[in-house]
């Protein structure tokens, strides 16, 4: 009877050891998966919140094409508890001209919120020719309870834009980032 009990104990220890190894490997895999996922998404250009490719330096000695005018229509969409809109609906620009437009956001909640803006362009052919020098979309925004903020976008349109393009729509979708961040922000507000 004693030998059976010892065998069961050895078998249990062996199984416990295997389970501990499996748990450690699973934890390591889960921990390593986040940076691997970010790298894959960045390489493929999908699900990228910080749009590194959108940032460009201000044009140096650029030639403004005064023979062409392009109407840039501004649009703001929000998914969350705030008001988000451009301060003007449209602006007329010349290719190569450095322009600043402003978007306004108002947090209508009694708690701090983290949010991100994602740009889109229409027609799609415009995307490689729309060069942002400064933009609130380059980073997450933290808005305090009931805060209102004006956020600039500084851009120029590459003169290589096809001549048939006369109108461009610059649209931003502003959305709240994850429930975990929201809870942490709300908890931080209660402590103060």
From TrEMBL:
Transmembrane segments: 16-37
Subcellular location: Cell inner membrane
Superkingdom in the source lineage: Bacteria
Matching InterPro entries: CtaG/Cox11_dom_sf, Cyt_c_oxidase_assmbl_CtaG
A Pfam family of this chain: CtaG_Cox11
Keyword Membrane: yes
Keyword DNA repair in annotation: no
Topological relation to the membrane, as annotated: Single-pass type II membrane protein
This protein's UniProt keywords: Copper, Membrane, Signal-anchor, Transmembrane, Transmembrane helix
Signal peptide, first to last residue: none
Chain's role: Exerts its effect at some terminal stage of cytochrome c oxidase synthesis, probably by being involved in the insertion of the copper B into subunit I.
Family of the protein in this entry: Belongs to the COX11/CtaG family.
PANTHER family referenced in this protein's UniProt entry, alphabetically: CYTOCHROME C OXIDASE ASSEMBLY PROTEIN COX11, MITOCHONDRIAL-RELATED, CYTOCHROME C OXIDASE ASSEMBLY PROTEIN COX11-RELATED
Name of the protein this chain belongs to: Cytochrome c oxidase assembly protein CtaG
Organismal lineage: Bacteria, Pseudomonadati, Pseudomonadota, Betaproteobacteria, Burkholderiales
